[in-house]
Amino acid sequence: MLTKLGGFALVLVAALSVASAQDQNGPVRNPFVVFGSRSGEAPVIVTGSYRLLGQSASRQGSFQEKPPDLWRAELNPSLLFYGIPLTASVLVSSEQRDVRQNINAFSLTLDPDAVRRIVTQRAYAALNDYARTEAGQLLDSYDEVRDSLQRVDPERLKELEEYRKLQQMRDVAKGDISDYTDVLSSMGFMSDVERVMASLPTVGVGTVFPTFTPITLSGARIQGAMLEWNPGWFYVHVTGGTMQRPLLRFDSVRVDSGLFTSADNSAYGRHLYAARLGVGRRDGSHVFLTGMFVEDDPVSVALTDSNTALTPQKNMLTGLDLRVEPIEGVWSMQAEAAVSLTVADRTAPTLSDDDVPGFLLGLSDSSASSYFDWAATAQTAVNIRETGTRFTASIRRIGPGYRALAVPNLRTDILRYDVRADQSFWKRQMSVGLFYRRDLDNLIPWKRSTTTITSLGGTLGLNIRRWPFLRVSYAPYAQINDATDTLLRFDNRTTVLNVTTGYNYRIGSMGAGTTLTYGQQNSSTLRGASDYGVTSVNVQQSLSFVFPLSVTAGLGYIVQSAAGQPDNGIVTVDIGGSYSVFDELSCNAGLMLALDDTYGARSGYHIGVTAALGEYANIDIRAERNIFDERVVPAVYGGTYRETIFRATISQSW
Asked: What would the DSSP string read from start to end of 289-329?
């Protein structure tokens, strides 16, 4: 397996090296193809990245389906063909299995973002060079010198104003250069062809990952197509395809000493169609309307009721998303509301009424398993760079019956308030932060009780020049319910304190750094039966020698306490080092040891080599050995084990 990966990598590296050698053998006039965004202009520019990973292990991880031996190959080339940006993405892995959803993926995208990235890289590089010049030092005092430059040197003022616009683009545009194409073109950072190409829609086919909003479509993998376009005031984003393929899987589940078969990890074939339309800029002020339809195919998998609770579902939702910026780049406000109708079981009986037309019952999905709910979010943010002030506040309400099947693991039945403020002082050498969060559930009271979760706290940071740095965070946390039955009532309270301090210094010709970390977590429960606490102290020392050797060592002590049990102590030791044989080759090694009073000892060590093959390959080879001597948990439940892991990675971006 690793031999195949290595052979593929060598062929790829050799091909790229030949192309490079041809360029180095002599000056090439007007090359047709160049590799890398820094290789100059040409009709065809090839950029991208690749990554090859192979792993071989002596055992499979406890309670894991990940195989001990595996390989993955990723290739992400971008082609700028006469200004037309095309990007491909390929992922192939030996982990692909019929009993799981697909891992292998391929997509081809018309990617105007590639043009935007190249243009912004040019502009930001020029801005950084200009800021280091005598003229560029006036960027921070523009208001004071503007009038005088207008009288004595208008050309210099014009140049200063152009670079101020680039500075504004960097600070507030968030990668959206639509409002800055005029200045980019006039300054020569954007050609006419690139300007046209940057305005094209993003089109993807194959395996795509579209994102609408966190409560409608986010994190879903779709085998299909997508199109996103934001030309000026108009915005459209449409997508459709297969979210999951049919999967029939029977698992043996052990409960105590008995075994039974479950098909709950099976899946129906699921298809999605969604659109987002509106006016405004995606990352700026806008009003967008979202619609989505997700449907399982009930005949795609043959399941019986006796071994699964899985049912074919249908999900329809619509939402409205609004964002405004009262002060551009400083103050923003955003709100979203969505409603969803879900059919929990498409095979359930449907309602009928002779007085209601059949097509209306069909539109309303009159299944006996249908339910309806709504969700809404709102937030505001203030970011004042000049004063180092940041403030965010948000509210989120997700109803218990709200479903968005295109948002994996969406938490429902929650009302959350969230506020955070951060302020820096003393020329950013001191920072203070405060935060508050409150969660409520049981929004339509259908549970026995309502649970309230409250979290608040603060952070302090000190970065005084030539003094040790300091980081402090303190966060109390409370989880309380109002159950009338005292046996079901709980009141859990936790406090977390973390303090980190450190200092970088020199010992003769060596560079050194010392870091000390203290952590404490204490939890109390209503009746005290589950009270526990954890206290840890860790000191880490690093040394960098004149010759290319760096060493780090850490020593820690952890104390765990629990109600009705004796305290448990753990001593940890970590030692690691890296030695550069020469610029392109370095070696590293490390040792880990954890001595647990109760459960036993865990130890491990690793050795590795990293190497760079020109500009086209970075190689990282690592071998590790882990040993766990468990005194309490049997090996069959993940106790004592010995494992050896070998991993090799070849990657590069160009």
From this structure: EEEEEEEE-TTSS---GGG------EEEEEEEEEEEEEETT
The residues, any chain, with a CB within 8 Å of residue 327's CB and separated by 6 or more, are none
Contact in structure between 515 and 540 (CB atoms under 8 Å): yes
* Distance (Å) of CA 182 to CA 157, 178, 340: 18, 9, 43
User: Up-side HSE of residue 198: CA atoms within 13 Å toward CB?
Assistant: 24
492, 479 contact by CB (below 8 A): yes
For the entire predicted model, the pTM comes to 0.81
Whole-angstrom distance, CA of residue 160 vs CA of residue 152: 14
Q: Which of 650, 608, 611 is nearest to 11 (CA)?
A: 650
What one-character DSSP code corresponds to residue 113? H
SS3 content of the chain, % helix, strand, coil (to 5): 15, 50, 30
- The one-character DSSP state at 411 is -
pLDDT in tens, 174-194: 667 777 888 888 888 888 777
Tokens of 220: 């879903």
As a whole number of angstroms, the distance between CA 530 and CA 550 comes to 44
8 A C-beta contact, residue 435 and residue 422: no
Contacts of 261 (CB under 8 A, 6+ apart): 250, 251, 252, 253, 307
CA 114 – CA 120 distance, rounded (Å): 10
Helix H, strand E, coil C: the string for 327-353 is ECCCEEEEEEEEEEEEECCCCCCECCC
DSSP three-state, residue 460: strand
Which tens digit of pLDDT belongs to each residue from 230-265? 887 899 999 999 999 998 888 777 666 566 777 878
How far apart CA 421 and CA 631 sit, in angstroms, is 47
Task: Give the residue ranges of the chain where pLDDT is below 70.
Answer: 1-30, 36-41, 172-175, 254-259, 305-307, 351-366
Structural tokens at position 246 = 């049919």
Q: What are phi and psi of 375, to 5 degrees?
A: -140, 150
Helix (H) or strand (E) holding 484: none
CA 133 to chain centre: 37
Backbone torsions φ then ψ of 580, nearest 5 degrees: -90, 110
Query: Which own/partner contact pairs does 226-233 have at CB distance under 8 Å and 24+ positions apart?
Result: 226/202, 227/201, 227/202, 227/203, 228/201, 228/202, 229/200, 229/201, 229/202, 230/178, 230/281, 230/282, 231/199, 231/201, 232/178, 233/279, 233/280
Give CA angle at 366 (365, 368), nearest 5°: 120
Pairing of the two strands 44-57 and 33-35: parallel
516 DSSP β-pair partners: 501, 539
Report the candidate in 38, 120, 42 with the shortest Cα–Cα distance to residue 80.
42
Query: Does residue 263 contact residue 288 with C-beta atoms inside 8 Å?
Result: no
